[in-house]
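> Could you send the Protein smf (DNA-processing chain A) prediction when you get a chance?

Sure thing. Input:
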Amino acid sequence: MTDRAWLALSRIPGLGPLRQRALLERFGAVDRCFQTGAGALQNLGLQTGQIAALQKAPEDILTPADQRWLESPDTDLCRWTDADYPPLLRHIPDPPLLLYLRGQRAGLNQAMLAIVGSRSATTTGIATAEAFAKNLGEAGLTICSGLALGIDAAAHRGALHSGTVAVLGTGADLIYPRSHLQLARQITEQGLIISEQPPDTGPRSGLFPRRNRIISGLSLGVLVVEAADGSGSLITARLALEQGREVFAIPGSIHSPLSRGPHRLIRDGAKLVESAEDVLSELGPLYAVLRSSQAAAPAADWRPEDSTQAKVWAAMDFDPLAPEQIASRCGLTLTELSAILLDMELQGYLAACPGGRFCRLPPVS
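Output:
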């Protein structure tokens, strides 16, 4: 019943990731969130309708589109509690608790770079995006974008052979725009289509900015090729900065309106990019860590060389601990600890567990 419960939870109107996580932390498992007494849901900030929905069985909430998703051999789900939930995405302020997948699930944990830009791109901009995506893909990065017209589509096309990830603002069973249906099919052959929206969710303007936080959240950085003032690509770049990711921009003609976005980003501190090597050199050690960490659990005799990581490692168990417990044992603030936990998780030494907790991974025998 678990998958049905996950889908049902995503169907409750207005129940966003933060309250979904609060429910999981309260009840420990998604199945237990349903058919509970109303009293157990107090103090979670839920609306009356949401509490009423949680009194039902998951089967009473699911739609025909949900049933088709569950029965299809070509669809998949990535849950917050799954070991392969993308570690970078897990650390944004409001990560989705459920991802709907079509294509190659292994794409979830590749080192990604987002390439975004204008829907009304120039011929030069499209050629530039495609060339950068091809070169960066061949260097080992998976290219992430939003399957929109213009720069997004060019980025996906450039990375079709190396693998690309398309994050949708619609349900993963609907392709928007429809003109990209064939491109979407090609993406699933080597890459992955992702959405946080339930099946049969059509295009609505408010969903695309939310989609953008996932594009940046999955990625080590965001490269903006062409963007006018007010472009959604600038929203993605801003979100990347808030999430602690790198932002890159390709400059253009001072006479082109589509250069204004990249030029503003460069003035505000984004890295000016002229070649794929500029991106790779800036990503530096984190890129190398992610590439090597498709790994494996640590060797039995592993000990962190960094003294602070060693302190965190010594404070942890193979049973999950909350960050507050780890911080208390180590004498660190939660802010200090968060960056350390992310780094150790990326190296494959720790695993994120349900309820926002962490545990050691068992050593390889």
